[in-house]
Amino acid sequence: MYLSREEETILEGEKGPVLEKMMRLLTRLGDIYGADKMIPVGSVQVSGVSYKSVGDPGMAFLEDMASQGAKVSVLTFLNPAGMDLEDWDEIGFPKDFAEKQLRIMKAFKEMGIVVTSTCTPYLAGNLPRFREHIAWSESSAVSFANSVISARTNREGGPSALAAAVLGKTPNYGLHLDENRRPDVLVDVQCEIRSDADFGALGWHIGKLVKSKIPYYRGMPTWATTDDLKALGAAMAASGAVALYHAEDLTPEAHLQDVSDMEKITVDEDDMRETYETLNTGEDPDIVILGCPHASLREIRKAADQVEGKTLKKPLWICTSRVMKEAADRMGYTDIIEEAGGRIVADTCMVVSPIETMGYGITGCSSGKAAQYLPGFCKQKVVFNSVESLLKEVL
Question: CA 200 to CA 216: how far, in whole Å?
């Protein structure tokens, strides 16, 4: 891999041990994947934030990097933490967990990373431009950036994303290259897509089938919103390893693709019904949690409209970024949801929070991603359905 003279001096340790360590990590990564050079990145999103995910070893690593003076050189956001960073005590997150989580956040902040903990950084102030090279790590954010925005990123690990943030560079391989962004599989959607959960179910089904291939969707509803595309990509990344998809008439690079003579998958009503049956592993949820990926202001408003003036029989969390929560506060949506008995929970989500230690065993969700991860990561049974149906169950 070609390195500039400046990059060579960093690798040789002339700019200090922290930069040397970060450059060594990225050059080895580039060598493994056949990168020809390093390229500058416009922004970074770092995963490995929740104490539940990284534990004491991860916390020690981050504190060590901060103590050595590591500083990011480009706009860098964080993945969700394991709790609401402001209201954790009131919500009921364990104190010992909170203490460790706050230490992790302090280390990130000392490195200059924006502690907006969210899997939707594009809704919170980190919006890449078309074809901009970035280094993001959370699977749904990577999918959205590549597919809906048509920025360019591989799915970075926590350490490689941190290295890219410090150096402002990443190796030039994978989805940074035009030839690796072409679709492999044509997905012909021959079923009706009716609800938010249907996009998650469709994505979960296709992710299972295509693994890490790039699908091209035909027959998707033209009314699909960015929230719907967010849910679709998140589910594919969770059940498979899809980091980029194209959708005819919906995503920016779709019209550039040649889908002739390509493997074809047809999705019909039977496929969708079987997916719902597979994802539903429980009945009568203890709690309904929405916002995986983090809810947009539009999704928060829809939930507020449905619960306004009513009383919830079960707990309701709507997980979102701090930025979206503050907007919901100003619009009065938070008050409406809280008066009904629900909460808007910022900075975290059901997957990376310790909900299994907080008295919950059956979670209702509309997210294909959450339905995939909750049984393993959080020891939950799942009630998977649309937001509208889930809220009707608990009102």
Answer: 16
